[in-house]
Write a structure and sequence with these properties.
9 helices; Metallo-beta-lactamase, Chain A; 7-stranded mixed beta sheet; about 25% helix; alpha/beta; single chain
């Protein structure tokens, strides 16, 4: 399959009972980048890529790296499995792209409780592990693009409850813009507008808070809306009346 394509793995918000939570797979040729990493990742990947009718389902070993926007669980709770699978099943460290503000508490605040003590045999004492045993952490930078394989990633801070970073990802001459979680931000819209395809979160006005109400996006100029797709959706989102196409899990989108 040629071109640059996007496969949504999960499109729901944190409280969704209908969808998996936010996760995207961006591919060019045989190179793939995972964007956000919820649980149960391998099941999510298998289901979405079977729906997409790929020659073989994507699995953790297919990805050049994973780019994580922030440390809310619906975006990163699969990292323990991702790191363990890479370490034990693949025999390698997983490449992880994050801005330092987002990754600052990744180990002590999230992963250490389940990953710092590893007992391989019952008659041996546990071994102490560190983040660097499982992951090659690559810092994203708001001042410059960061390359990883064929992917080049730019990032921008969003308006959210914890440090969160939107991304523009360039591969094979095409650009995907991803809002990550954010309150409505016209400056961020302008930044994302340089992308060929924009994926933006959306929620209802009543539940917006530090998320973006759909009504704000629906009022954007047609030229922006025509290149925009919606994700991070609440279960009561009215897909049928949306003037911007909501992403569907397992559908292939050309970037």
């Amino acid at each position: 399959m040629g071109g640059v394509r996007l496969i949504p793995i999960g499109v729901g918000e944190a409280f969704s009972a209908r969808h998996y939570t936010s996760c995207l797979a961006l591919g060019s040729g045989n190179d793939w980048l995972l964007i956000d990493c919820p649980h149960p990742l391998r099941k999510m990947l298998r289901e979405a890529t079977l729906t997409a009718k790929l020659p073989e389902p994507l699995d953790i070993g297919h990805f050049t790296a994973t780019a994580v926007t922030h440390l809310h669980a619906d975006h990163c709770c699969g990292l323990e499995d991702y790191g363990y699978f890479s370490y034990f099943a693949l025999g390698r460290r997983a490449k992880l792209l994050m801005h330092p503000e987002s990754s600052a508490r990744l180990w002590d605040g999230l992963l250490a409780a389940g990953m710092e003590s590893v007992q391989a045999r019952p008659d041996e004492p546990p071994a102490r592990k560190a983040l660097s045993d499982y992951f090659e952490l690559i810092d994203l930078d708001t001042t410059r693009p960061v390359a990883c394989g064929p992917f080049s990633i730019e990032c921008r801070r969003t308006i959210h409850a914890v440090p969160t970073y939107a991304m523009r990802i360039t591969v094979a001459g095409r650009v995907l813009g991803f809002s990550a979680d954010t309150a409505f931000d016209p400056g961020l819209i302008d930044w994302l507008a340089e992308s060929d395809l924009i994926v933006h979160e959306a929620t209802s006005m009543a539940h917006s808070g530090v998320h973006t109400p759909y009504e704000k996006l629906a009022a954007l100029p047609d030229e922006i809306r025509s290149r925009m797709r919606l994700t991070h959706l609440p279960d009561d989102f009215d897909v049928g009346s949306s003037v911007i196409e909501p992403l569907r899990e397992g559908k292939i989108y050309e970037v």
